[in-house]
Amino acid sequence: MSSEINWQKSSFSGDGPQCVEVAEHDGAIVMRESDDPYVLTIIGRSNFAAFIAGVKAGEFDHFTD
User: Which end of the chain is less congested by CB atoms within 10 angstroms, N or C?
Assistant: First the structure.
């Protein structure tokens, strides 16, 4: 992966060192945890859109309990 990836984190992460960062690279979505930046998850745009729709619908809320 190129070092020129423009990572974005949620404003809900605050100023802490631990957050999930997301970027677009070569037509795919790349995700990482800021405290372990060399471990990447790469996901297609349509799968990422489905995941975000599930998050918005509350389908994953039980993971935060």
Answer: C
Q: In this structure, what token pair is assigned to residue 11?
A: 């404003």
Question: How far apart, in whole angstroms, are the C-alpha atoms of residue 39 and residue 41?
Answer: 7
Ranges of the chain whose pLDDT falls below 70: 1-3
Q: Which of 44, 12, 5 is nearest to 20 (CA)?
A: 12
pTM recorded for the entire structure: 0.78
Residue 12, Ramachandran bin (φ over 0: left; ψ between -120 and 50: alpha; else beta): alpha
Number of Cα atoms under 13 Å in the Cβ half of residue 59: 8
Question: What's the alpha-carbon Rg for the chain, to the nearest Å?
Answer: 13
